[in-house]
Amino acid sequence: MVVEVVVVVIYLLTYCVLTAGQLKTTARWIRDFVAEHPSYQRDSVVSEPVCYDLVSACAEITNGTRDEPMLIFDHKSRTAANLPAAMQRNDQHLANMAAKRAVVGVAADGIGDGPLPQSS
Question: What is the Cα Rg of the chain in Å?
Fold first, then answer.
């Protein structure tokens, strides 16, 4: 009985803190991060730079190198050792995409002035 009461009290306190805006859920934090990003143009398009910075921020939080005291839960990961390799692969992918855009004359927004690549 005592355990159930404690659980209910913790739940109610958590609910009060969340509704008062004193802490953020992960979803709220992500929405705020995107909305406040300098590259976000409030057009519902989350560009590659915004996505990259968001993933980088999440990796920093998971690794413990970025403190986000407004987040409600501890966000340490058991897979944190895999994140640097994944970020490195993402960096390489972005570099490859930028190189391909440069070759065919496509802007970062995917709208190009240049010719389409010829198939062999």
Answer: 21
pLDDT digits (tens, 9 = 90+) for 41-62: 999 999 999 999 999 998 888 8
Do the domain assignments include residue 40? yes
Q: Tell me the mean pLDDT in the region 100-115.
A: 59
Amino acid present at 83: L
Q: Which residue range is the domain that position 77 belongs to?
A: 20-102
pLDDT for residue 92: 84
φ, ψ at 64 (rounded to 5°): 85, 10
Q: Rounded to the nearest 10 degrees, what angle do helices 48-63 and 26-36 cross at?
A: 140
99: left (phi over 0), alpha (psi -120 to 50) or beta: alpha
- When divided into structural domains, the chain yields a total of 1
| pLDDT above 90 (res 99) | no
pTM of the entire predicted model: 0.55
For residue 105, give Cα distances in angstroms to 13, 22, 28, 45.
55, 47, 37, 22
Q: What is the CATH number of the domain that holds 82?
A: 1.10.8.960
